[in-house]
Design brief:
homodimer; 257 residues; 8-stranded mixed sheet; 4-stranded mixed sheet; 12 strands
Chain lengths: 257, 257
């Protein structure tokens, strides 16, 4: 299972961890691995911003949010389209499964998704691709379903041998490596790492608050799956990780180290 | 319930009944009607051609079809994207529900689709939009789900007051009005009309074989719903139909006239 992420919120500009060139390289690395992969990607920064503007994460507040729901869904589908076209260029038969069209949340938590569909596509040799989206919510009418929530649900169902998060830095750092020259890579991440980092959005892996992200990664690792964060911008790392070779990055380990 | 259709198969060119200008006019007509609408559209001619090339309608035959499944799905989503952008320009909050991501067929017949999702979006005031697509099949692994099959399932569930098919001619004719100057509009269409037309693709409403299309329309009418075929290229006709005004076109009537 591979997640392509994360994006940062910048000055209303569309910022993405991976441009077309690096996305194409990553999809080629997946293709050459020959591995069966479920692919998840984030909503992209523009989707995040627009969602924030319309307060979609709070659920239904007023009718004027409806056009926000539609616009954010369209925006994340546009990003998804770029990933799908890249998979096609890499020769990978893939199908897009937008959570907004098939999932249901409850109070902000992903509760229901037709995973049988994912299974059927996998059995056919067609790669299911899903992504962070605006999703219906049985309590709040709608909400934001993150790529990380999808990763968790999919991992519980499909028991992947390996879970790889492709970031745009080498892994989890003691500080933001883009701002702090003293930042060092944490090769083994566990719950004690989580407790040691200050709860601030300054300390980040360039995907927003690292705290919440690490929480989800630890939950995944605690399912007993090998979970790692690698640099998707470094050519060959994803291919090596999928080939089970040792690769620079952070291993996420369930429980205390 | 409105269907925007149909497309003809031409010389590998992408032919569509409605270009951006007419699609924008149609979505504005829907917006100005103030009616709650479920929108269905076809797969477009390019999708049809590609599907035919890979024999997707026959279900799984060989692995090489997988890339065909992916390509046709991408193609119909590209067409759907244009419709969604048009709805956005018309100020209609809408959501795209691709059958390939949420439906299941059985031996070529649409069997399962999460209609609760459509209901929730409708209740929120967000228009559900779906379309002809490559869909998983419990027997044949995959197949083609037509917009007409979707219309039937949705009509059975949602009991719409009105079902409108937007064609690119005035309705159902005694012959192809683009080829035969003697062709006349059939204002009331019933099972006897079906029996009277020769089973040939020459006699068409410019949407391929009219025979199969008429069959589906009659099934819809036999659910007891007012079903009509109008010319989507004629400005104001969809708006009039949605406003329950008398409009030029063909009424489809269940049972013998």
């Amino acid at each position: 299972m591979v997640k392509l992420g994360g994006s940062v919120i910048t000055d209303k500009a569309r910022y993405r961890s991976f441009n077309q060139e690096s996305t194409d390289r990553l999809t080629r690395e997946i293709a050459s691995s020959g591995k069966q992969v479920v692919l998840v990607h984030g909503a992209g920064s523009f989707g995040h911003l627009l969602a924030h503007e319309h307060q979609l994460q709070r659920g239904y507040l007023k009718d004027s949010q409806r056009i926000g729901v539609a616009k954010v869904q369209q925006d994340v589908r546009d990003l998804n389209r770029e990933v799908m076209l890249s998979l096609d260029r890499a020769g990978i038969p893939a199908t897009s499964i937008p959570p907004g069209a098939c999932a249901l949340m409850e109070g902000g938590l992903l509760r229901k998704m037709d995973l049988g569909l994912f299974r059927r596509y996998l059995d056919l040799g067609i790669m299911p691709v899903t992504f962070g989206d605006v999703v219906l919510d049985a309590q709040k009418k709608f909400g934001i379903c993150s790529g990380d929530q999808l990763m968790y649900l999919l991992a519980k169902e499909f028991h992947p041998k390996l879970i790889v998060f492709c970031a745009d830095v080498d892994g989890i750092f003691t500080a933001d490596p883009n701002l702090d020259r003293g930042a060092s890579l944490i090769e083994k991440v566990d719950r004690s790492t989580l407790e040691s980092i200050p709860r601030t959005s300054r300390v980040t892996d360039v995907t927003g608050s690292i705290y919440g992200k690490l929480e989800s990664m630890l939950s995944l690792a605690e399912l007993g799956k090998t979970t790692m964060v690698i640099n998707g911008l470094a050519p060959g790392r994803l291919a090596s990780a999928l080939g089970c070779a040792k690769v620079k990055g952070s291993m996420v380990v369930g429980g205390q180290a």
